[in-house]
Design goal:
CATH class of the largest domain in chain A: Alpha Beta
Oligomer: homodimer
Number of domains of chain A: 2
CATH topology of the largest domain in chain A: Aldehyde Dehydrogenase, Chain A, domain 1
CATH architecture of the largest domain in chain A: 3-Layer(aba) Sandwich
Helix content of chain A: 40-55%
Low-confidence stretches of chain A: none
Number of strands of chain A: 16
Distance between the termini of chain A: 55 Å
Strand content of chain A: 15-25%
Largest sheet of chain A: 7 strands, parallel
Strand order of the largest sheet of chain A: 10-9-11-8-7-12-13
Structural class of chain A: alpha/beta
CATH superfamily of the largest domain in chain A: Aldehyde Dehydrogenase, Chain A, domain 1
Radius of gyration of chain A: 24 Å
Mean pLDDT of chain A: 96
Chain lengths: 418, 418
């Protein structure tokens, strides 16, 4: 069977399953998630075996140590997946909520009821725990999901797919509600992107190349972020103790993720006071500093920054530092080089805090807190399926509610229009 | 200047203007709308003159009477445009609303604040009143707009563009907040569709061909509906008096619009009772009936329906009629042939009403009311910019709120992540 036909069949089956999921109540969906957790326990050895095949092949292919680490499953990591499933079980089900209802002058009662999106396709990288996480969130929100993970994890993913199918079957839900694509080339992705009328949403997660490929070819709505070039602006009215802790946390706590700080902007009035001890602390933590001329003048150990540093997402222990004249220059820099992801101001000044909150165009804008809080869990949405930096449908971390939409329901008593 | 460059310049200017509009308060935006209303009054004669040119050319080209009617402006119609502007002025401004705010265990205060989308491009047909309506809604929601109307209305649209620019200027807002594309070929549309990073949303309004063209080529989110194949299902537990009034209104009150009924589904238990008088009334109103075999047996004047009739959007005094065995057959028919637009059940049965409301996948689902209520004004959203039948971002009529999004704002006191 050619790949287009195979994907079309999967999409048709997913759509049928979605119609059933849409009116499946929360208890049944939670039971399915519990069965998946049980399945992971019961099939631990065959899962680890399948994963070992992936890891061996990855080593043969010479993949990086970091990638092999992300790919590798252990008993502890599988327990982590089970814990995540129970976390999703504990989250409230958004489906069926009527957030508001109102009455029209002619007596029509109009409400907006939350419904699943339908069929979601996930296109992602090698991590096998993402397979369970994405499937769990889509299922809980009443959606079918088609999972197309990276080729490196194909044996693990097919095994996880089997565990999930069996779990669905046990609680009487259609097996096609969660499907794993067995073909891992780009053709399979292309075929998914053309399933308008069957797939309602594509969520790509991975490198910028993959995400651009998906965006360019999709005929279906895509929720994504390309990259996180996050700034912390230290105002001259900042509490410099808070500023130091926030900047250090934003850069060093986990430098390889999208909500880590990449550029620090410092008001010139406090640069001499703030930068020497701050940059020394970064240096001691292994952070390479790339500074503007003023930064280098204050802290000669810094490398001079080039124009490439300002839009860079290092995802590493590297930091660009710029001294700015005022909040306006900071906001202009952010508007020019930022990625609409996460932006922070550190200040004790009330008016500037609000200027920054209102004017900076980013999915999450914070005052006096670390960039690292742009995360569904940290902001209180529960588990997240990704972060969106485009404004349609969702802007920022996407939890269960962002995997749903609303339709209008209208209760009449025979009304007609004049 | 070639068209791609021209559109890029417009898009860049629109983005700059959007940054100003995003923090412009409601009073200033309302003042701009009042100045546009005043401008329409003051420039009435030059507007009617420009429009007369369009009408003359349209007649020379041999456009249909209906199209020429939609194109033609009169003093009364301009007054209608002014009234619409005052209606938009009276609507509450969604921007800046914080619908909810909560506190995290670490003391972070997290809110979702409503913000404009940014830059919206409208691609639409000949009606010049749409130019004012779309611009007014986009402006009120804090968005820049690029308007690309049909070639038939170009003289009217350019004149309206000038009036709006002058109005923006009078209140100190950037003229580039509302721009009219002067090139009316498809290349201009194509160029708009590729302005990722500048334009945040495309809204096409017009025939299915135009909308498919936009959807296929857009690299930017599109909100649209292709067509409205709306059904009324008359259950055997219906109050047949209500059913007759609702069906008649849904078909006849304004047959040329997307929320008119195209197919009537009737439970077989009431078909013999309901159809003869109902179809006679339709016949007398000039409606052509295309019936399934059972319908034709009951009402021999009906033409036999073919397979093409079930997915048809007639937009005319033509109606497909099918007798069904029960609510399930009705819902299956709707799932197969419907367009996710507007669906109605007429019943007095509580359980069936809820079954229909929950299971039917359409942007507006009604019990005991006419399909014609799928309209932003009728449902209480105020003026609408269109109806979306895709589920991302908005599903159903789109008012001011649907022209905005939310971002997260976070108030910290020095929090860092562990």
């Amino acid at each position: 069977m050619n790949i287009k036909k195979e994907i079309l069949t999967m999409a048709e089956e997913a759509k049928k399953a979605a119609q059933i999921l849409a009116t499946t109540n929360t208890t049944v969906k939670n039971n399915a998630l519990k069965e998946i957790a049980q399945g992971l326990k019961d099939n631990l050895s065959s899962l680890l075996e399948a994963n070992a095949k992936d890891v061996t092949q990855a080593k043969e292919k010479g993949l990086s140590k970091a990638m092999i680490d992300r790919l590798t499953l252990t008993e502890t990591r599988v327990q982590g997946m089970i814990n995540n499933l129970y976390e999703v079980i504990s989250l409230p089900d958004p489906v069926g909520n009527v957030a508001k209802m109102w009455q029209r002058p002619n007596g029509l009662k109009v409400g907006k009821i939350r419904i699943p999106l339908g069929v979601i396709a996930m296109v992602y990288e090698a991590r096998p725990d993402a397979t369970i996480e994405a499937a769990a969130l889509c299922l809980k929100a009443g959606n079918s999901v088609i999972l197309r993970g990276g080729s490196e994890a194909i044996n693990s993913n097919l095994c996880l797919g089997k565990i999930m199918r069996e779990a669905l079957d046990k609680v009487g839900l259609p097996q096609k509600a969660i499907q794993v694509v067995s073909t891992t080339n780009r053709e399979a992705v292309l075929a998914l992107l053309e399933m308008e009328g069957y797939i309602d949403l594509i969520i790509p997660r991975g490198g910028e190349g993959l995400i651009r490929f998906v965006s360019e070819h999709a005929k279906i709505p895509v929720l994504k972020h390309y990259k996180g070039v996050c700034h912390v602006y230290v105002d001259d009215k900042a509490d410099l103790k808070k500023a130091e802790e926030i900047c250090f946390n934003a850069k060093v706590q986990r430098p390889g993720v999208c909500n880590a700080m990449e550029t620090m902007l410092v008001h010139e009035q406090v640069a001499k006071n703030f930068l020497p001890s701050m940059l020394k602390r970064f240096k001691e933590a292994g952070v390479e500093i790339r500074g503007c001329p003023k930064t280098c003048a204050i802290f000669p150990e810094a490398k001079p920054a080039t124009e490439e540093d300002w839009p860079a997402e290092y995802l590493d222990l590297t930091l660009a530092v710029k001294v700015v004249a005022n909040i306006n220059e900071a906001m202009e820099h952010i508007a020019k080089y930022g990625s609409n992801h996460t932006e922070v101001i550190v200040t004790e000044d009330y008016t500037r805090a609000w200027q920054f909150l209102e004017r900076v165009d980013a999915s999450v804008v914070l005052v006096n807190a670390s960039t690292r809080f742009n995360d569904g869990n940290q902001l209180g949405l529960g588990a997240e399926i990704g972060i969106s930096t485009s404004k349609l449908h969702a802007y920022g971390p996407m939890g269960l509610e962002e995997l749903t939409t609303t339709k209008f329901i209208v209760f009449g008593q025979g009304q007609i229009r004049n």
